[in-house]
UniProtKB/TrEMBL annotation:
InterPro entries linked to this entry: Cardiolipin_synthase (IPR022924), PLD-like_dom (IPR025202), PLipase_D/transphosphatidylase (IPR001736)
Transmembrane regions listed in the UniProt entry: 31-52
Listed PROSITE patterns: PLD
Principal subcellular localisation of the protein: membrane
Localisation per UniProt entry: Cell membrane
CC annotations in GO: plasma membrane
The PLD phosphodiesterase domain, residue ranges: 209-236, 385-412
Pfam families (alphabetical): PLDc_2 (PF13091)
Protein name, as recorded: Cardiolipin synthase
Example of a GO biological process term: cardiolipin biosynthetic process
Protein EC: 2.7.8.-
Amino acid sequence: MIWILIIFTLHVLGMLSAFKAVMETRTSQGAIAWVIFLVSFPYISLPVYWILGRNRFRGYTSAKHIKDEKIQADLAEFLGELKRYQVPSSEISAAEAAAEKLALLPMLQKNSVELLIDGDATFESILKGIAEAEAYILFQFFIVKDDEIGRKIKEALVAKAKEGVKVYFLYDEIGSHSLSKSYMSDLEAAGIMIHPFHTQKGIFNRFQINFRNHRKVVVVDGKHGWIGGHNVGDEYLGRSPKFGHWRDTHIKISGPAVLAVQVSFVEDWLWALDEGIGELLWEPYVSDEKDQKVLIVPSGPADERETAALMFHHAINSAQQRIWIASPYFVPDDAIISALQLAGLRGVDVRILIPDRPDHLLVYLAAYTYFENLIQTDVRFFRYTNGFLHEKVMLIDDETATVGTANFDNRSFRLNFEITAIVKDCGFASEVEKMFLDDFDHAREMTESDLRQMSLWFKFKARMARLTSPIQ
C-alpha cells in the first residue's frame, strides 16, 4: 500500500512540475521536453527538474528593487553630474539606444580603455591597480584558486587591507569550490570582507545548482575597473600542462563607466549578504588620456528580459560590414543561428573563432553541428590552435567592440550572471581588429571537407551533444 501511495505522489508531483514547466520555461521546445519527461518518468525527472529545470533566479529580482533604491540614493547627489558624461542621443545609433535599455546606466564618455591581452598583462595591470588603491577594492571572480597567482593576489589584498583600504571579496561557491579554507581565513584575518555569492540562498533556490555568478570584476576607488575572461588561477597564465598557452582578453576601464561596474558589484554583494556595503565613491572620475564611449551591460537569470541573448542578437543584426566573434563555448540557440545566417546572406563578414582543443567535450562536439548549419550562408569558422582560447570578444564593423564574461551559449544567455563592456571607439576597435587578426593567424579555418571526413559515429555524437545544449 505504501508503494502505491509513493508512486501516486510522484506522478502528481510530476504533473504539477510539468504545469510549472509549461508556465515558466522560456522556450516551447524546452517546455515540451520537460512535460514529456516529467509526466512519463517522474521517478527520475523530478530531482533533475528541481536541480536543473529552472532558469529564473528566485528572490534576486524582488530584492533588486530595494537595492536599486539604496543605490539611487547613493548616486542621487552625483546623477546630475553623471548626465554631463552621457553620450548625446544624436551620437547614438538605434542599435546602441536599444542596448542602453538593457543596461544599468547609459553609455558614458570621457573613459580610457586599455586592451589587456593574455594573463601576464591582465594580472600585472590588476596587481598594479590594487597597489595604488587608496579607499577600497571590489574584487569578484567566478573561480579563485589557491595557487601561485591566487596567493600573489591574496598577499596584495592583505597588504592593502593592513594599510586601511577596505576590501570586499565576492566569489562563486561552485566555481571556487576548491578554494581552501586557509586562503579564506587569511583574508578574513586581515579584515577583508569575503563572501560567496550564495546561488542557493532562499527556500526556492535550495536545490538549484544550475546558476552561476560568472562575473570577473575588479573596481578600485570607483575610478578604475577591470572586466574580461580571466579567472584567478595559474592556468590563466599559461601554466597548465594540459593546455599550455591560455589565450584570453581583459580590459581596464578608467572613467565614469566604472560606476556602472560598481553598481553591478553592489547589487551582487547586497544579494549575498543582505546588508549594505561601506561608503563608496560615486563622483565620476574623468580620464584625461582618452575620450572613449563605454556602455556596461550586466546580465543574468534575474533579469526580466534575456539581456545577454538580446544583446548578442542585436549586435549581429546591427552589423553592416563585419562581425567577428571569439568564444570558447559556441552553443547558441536557434534565434542566434538565424541571425548569423541572415548576416552572412546580406554580405556581412561573419567569423566565429573557437578553440581547437576542448576543455568541455560536449561543447566541442556540438559546435560541429552549428558549423554545418552556418557554412552554407558564408559564415566562416576558425579553430584556434595555439593553446586554449578562452576570450569572449566581439568586433562589430569599424567602431564597436565588446569584451566581457559571457560566452555564446545557453548558460551565459540564460543561467549565468555575466557582465559585458561595449566600447564605441574607432581606435579601440582597431586594436581589437589587430588582436583578432593575430588570433586568426594562429587558427585553422574549417571547410566542408572537415564535415565530409567525419564518421557517422562522430556525427551522431555531435548531434547528441547538441541535445544537451540547454544545460551546457
